[in-house]
Amino acid sequence: MSYYSREVYFTSDIDLVYADREALDTALKGIGFEKEGRYWVHEELKMAIEAPASSLPEQDSPLEVVELGEGLECSIIGIEDLVMDRLNAFKHWKSEIDGEMVELLIRRYRNDLDWSYLEKKAIRPENDTLSEILALKKKVGL
């Protein structure tokens, strides 16, 4: 969320998707993180990492590739899946801050969003957010 909101919103943790749980655990432990429940915490850095999944839920989920310099890059969740995640939190769990974040993202990225992908995801029973997506689309003049 911090990346797409241009640091208007800071999350309290970093969520990772990993290919090899054992290698991830070894790497995090090796750089000073300690396992506390579902999080890896680094007290000195005041940072928490959660690695809830070994893969994204769908193979067709768009990813954003961020260049980190020196030949390094990082893949992060695509904006559309982030919008859907926050919209679900707003609608189903009544999280007002997530509703605000959805509006911020929709306004900022309205011309870059894959609206057909969003609408396709919104009609799924687990999301049930098509009316909200269409209302947001109208709200930003599309």
Characterization of this structure:
By secondary structure, the protein is α+β, with helices and mostly antiparallel strands. The chain folds into two domains: 1-55; 79-139. The protein has helices at residues 21-30, 79-93, 96-109, 115-122, 130-139; strands at 14-17, 34-36, 39-42, 47-53, 63-69, 72-77. A four-stranded mixed β-sheet has the order 1-4-3-2, with no helix packed on it. It has a two-stranded antiparallel ribbon with strand order 5-6. The protein is elongated and about 50 Å long.
In short:
With 142 residues, this protein is α+β, with helices and mostly antiparallel strands.
Keywords:
142 residues; alpha+beta; 2 domains; 4-stranded mixed beta sheet; 5 helices; 22% strand; elongated
Number of helices: 5
What class do helices, strands and sheet pairing give?
alpha+beta
Helix content: 40-55%
Termini separation (Å)? 23 Å
Number of domains: 2
Number of strands: 6
**Given the C-alpha coordinates, what overall shape results?**
elongated
- What is the element string, with H for helices and E for strands? EHEEEEEHHHH
Radius of gyration: 17 Å
The residue ranges in which pLDDT falls below 50 over 5 or more consecutive positions are: none
Strand order of the largest sheet: 1-4-3-2
Topology:
Blueprint: E1 14-17, H1 21-30, E2 34-36, E3 39-42, E4 47-53, E5 63-69, E6 72-77, H2 79-93, H3 96-109, H4 115-122, H5 130-139
